[in-house]
Amino acid sequence: MTDTASKKRPDMTVYFVPDRENPYWTPIGAAWAHNDEEGFSIRLDLLPNSPGDIVLRKRKPKEQAEPSGE
């Protein structure tokens, strides 16, 4: 990750969504857009070891709820 990405607020939150009915979206990291807008740098705090999806969502202001199962 570049120094720029580590100094600014992340553009996306990275979630793990397990393969099951009514899953809880677990935040597992963050993503920063590249300056050329051609990609992202991703930092994961957790690596899932069960089947599911990794989902990137735009960050929302703290007063809004996080996704719960879109």
Notes on the structure:
Residues 51-70 are annotated as: Disordered. There is one protein chain. The protein has one helix spanning 3-7; strands at 12-18, 26-33, 40-44, 52-58. With 70 residues, it is mainly β. The chain has a domain at 3-44. Strands 3-2-1-4 form a 4-stranded antiparallel sheet, with no helix packed on it. A hairpin with a 6-residue loop joins strand 2 and strand 3. It is elongated. The mean pLDDT is 85.
Please count the helical segments: 1
Largest sheet: 4 strands, antiparallel
Distance between the first and last residues' Cα: 29 Å
Number of strands: 4
Query: Which value, in Å, is the CA radius of gyration?
Result: 13 Å
Which segments are poorly predicted (pLDDT under 50) over 5 or more consecutive residues? none
**Strand order within the widest sheet?**
3-2-1-4
- Content of β-strand: 35-45%
Instruction: Give the proportion of residues in helices.
Output: under 10%
How does the overall form come out from the CA principal axes? elongated
Mean pLDDT: 85
- What order do the helices and strands follow? HEEEE
Overall structural class, as computed from helix and strand content, comes to: mainly beta
